[in-house]
Amino acid sequence: MKKLIIFFAVFVMFCAVPVQAADPAGTAPPMVKKPGLVKPTREESDFLLKRPHLRCCISGHYEGKMRETHCKEMGSKPTSGKVTLDIDQGASCGSAFEARSVNAGDGKVTHFKGTVTPGSSKECCNFTAQSISGRDNVHLKGEICCEKTKNCLLKGQFTSVDCSGVTEMRKMH
Question: Which pTM value belongs to this model?
Answer without folding.
Answer: 0.65
